[in-house]
Specification:
The chain is mainly alpha-helical and 79 residues long. It has helices spanning 3-13, 17-43, 48-60, 64-77. It has one domain. Helix 3 runs antiparallel to helix 4 (64-77).
Length: 79
């Protein structure tokens, strides 16, 4: 384990469960914002509801069942 990995592990281990969850929530929100910017850059401005589902498609679209469900919703919100 590198010095950086060891320092990171110690910092994470020192967190309370609530702090870990807060960190996870913040990182998840940050990742969604990055994906929103990417989708907007590729497709232009979208209504908030459609953007939300396009982000979901980006995240969960690798699963065929999820992709189908999200695409069905997208047909309704994008019309």
């Amino acid at each position: 384990m590198s010095i950086v990995e060891e320092a990171y592990r110690k910092a994470i281990d020192a967190m309370t469960p609530a702090e870990r969850i807060e960190r996870m929530v913040n990182l998840n929100a940050w990742a969604r914002e990055v994906i929103e910017r990417q989708v907007t850059a590729e497709q232009g401005p979208l209504p908030p509801e459609e953007l939300k589902w396009r982000v979901a498609l980006w995240i969960y679209g690798g699963n065929p069942h999820s992709r189908q469900l999200i695409e069905e919703v997208l047909t309704r919100v994008s019309n």
